[in-house]
Amino acid sequence: MLGVATLPAQAPLVGDINLYGLYKVTPEKILHALKLHSGDPLPGSRGDMEERIEDVSGVVLARVEAVCCDGPRTILFIGIEERGAPHAAFRSDPAGDVMLPAFLVDTYHAFLGAVESAAAEGVSGEDLSAGHSMMDDSKAWAFQQRFLEVVPGNLKILREVLHNGSEPGQRAIAAALIGYAPEKADVINDLQYALQDPDESVRANALRSLTAIAVLASKQPALGLRISPTWMVELLNSVVLSDRVESVKALLALTEGSDPRKYPESQPALDLIRGRALHSVVEMARWKSPQYALPPFLLASRLAGIPYVDALQQWATGDHEAVLDKALGNARKKSGGTLQ
User: Fold this and answer.
1) Is residue 29 domain-shared with residue 121, that is, in the same domain?
2) Which of 94, 191, 195, 238 has the fewest CB atoms within 10 Å, i.e. is most exposed?
3) Between 75 and 257, whose confidence is greater?
4) CA Rg value for the chain
C-alpha cells in the first residue's frame, strides 16, 4: 500500500540495479553515463541522475527510483523511454474545485498510518477475495471496515473528485476508497478512467482497487464482472515503476484462469499483452531482484502456456530463460512474424 520509496536522505550502498524500457539503448550506456555500479554509494541527487541518462543518445525520458532495502543495500530501478518506443499517455490535469469531506481524508490518512505501523512490525498480508483489501493487521482492518460503512453514502462525491478534482492527493484517496463500493460493477469504469490520470499515485491506487475486483471476479464468475485489460497493458510500457509493478499484479489477477479451454475470457488480455507489452514483461522478469522479477515471470509463464506449479518449479531451479523463450516463441507463432 505504501508503494515505492523515494531516494533516502542519507546515501546507503547501491544493491541490485534493475533497468527497464531499453530497446536499442544498452544497459552499459546507461550505467556508463551514471558512472554507477552495484556496491557504490547511492548518489544523492535523483534529478542529476535522470538528467545524465537523458543526455544519452536515443533517450527522451528517464526515471530513477530507489527501494529500501535488500539487506543493507538499496535496490535501484532505472527506467527510460526511448525515442519511438511504446509509451503510456495520460490525460491533462483536471481543473475542478470539488473536494472530499474532511472526515474521509482524515480517516484515510489514519489508515495509512496503521498500515505503516503494521509493515514495521512485519504484518503486511491482506485478503482481496471480497473485491477490496482487508488487511491482516487489526487496526488497519478496522479502518477498512469503516470504509465499507461510509463509502456507499459518499459514492457521488468520490466519483466527482476522481473525475474532476484538481488535487492529485484527493483523486488518489478517491481511487482507493471507491473500491469499497458495495456493487463493484458500478465503479469499474471510474477506476478504468483513473488509469489514465496524470498522477502516478492515482493510477497506483486505481490499479490496486481493480486488482481486488479482479480477484473477486475470478472467484465468483457468476457475478459477471468485466474488467478491460487495455489500460493495464499500456501501463506496462510506462517509465514509472509503480505503473509497471501494479499493472503486473492486476493482470495476474485478471488472467488467474489462464487455461483457454476453461477460461476463454482470459485470452483477450493475454493476446493484448503479447501484442502491446511482451518486451516489457520479459524485461521485468529478468530483473536482478527476485521479489520484483517473480510477478512478471509468472505473467510471462501464462503467456507461454505453462501451468502455475510448473512455472514456480522452473523459477526455483533457476531455469528462467526457458519460460521466457517459450513466451516469446508463442507470441511469434500468434503474430506470424518475429518479435524483439
Assistant:
1) no
2) 94
3) 75
4) 20
What are the pLDDT digits (tens) for 265-291?
578 899 999 999 999 999 999 999 999
Of 337 and 49, the one with more pLDDT: 49
Q: What distance in Å separates the CA atoms of residue 218 and residue 222, rounded to the nearest whole number?
A: 9
Cβ neighbourhood burial of 147 (10 Å; 0-12, 13-18, 19+): buried
Q: Which domain holds residue 104?
A: 86-227
Task: Report which secondary-structure segment, H or E, holds 254.
Answer: helix 241-254
Say how many C-beta atoms besides its own lie within 10 A of residue 22's C-beta.
19
Q: Measured at the alpha carbon of residue 120, what is the angle toward residues 243 and 194, in degrees to the nearest 5?
A: 25
Report if residue 232 sits inside a domain. Answer: no
Kindly state the percentage of the chain with pLDDT values over 90.
87
Question: What's the confidence (pLDDT) of residue 69?
Answer: 78
Cβ(243)–Cβ(279) below 8 Å: no
- Residue with the bigger pLDDT between 147 and 260: it is 147
The secondary structure element, H or E, covering residue 66 is strand 59-70
| DSSP string computed for 175-232 | HHHGGG-S-GGGTHHHHHHHTT-SSHHHHHHHHHHHHHHHHHHHH-GGG------HHH
User: Dihedrals φ, ψ of 74, to 5°?
Assistant: -100, 135
Same domain, 67 and 121: no
Per residue in 190-222, pLDDT (tens digit) is 999 999 999 999 999 999 999 999 999 999 999
Mean pLDDT throughout 222-249?
Answer: 97
Torsion of CA 190, 118, 199, 238, to 10 degrees: -100
Q: What is the pTM of this model?
A: 0.91
What does the block give as the cell for 121? 512490525
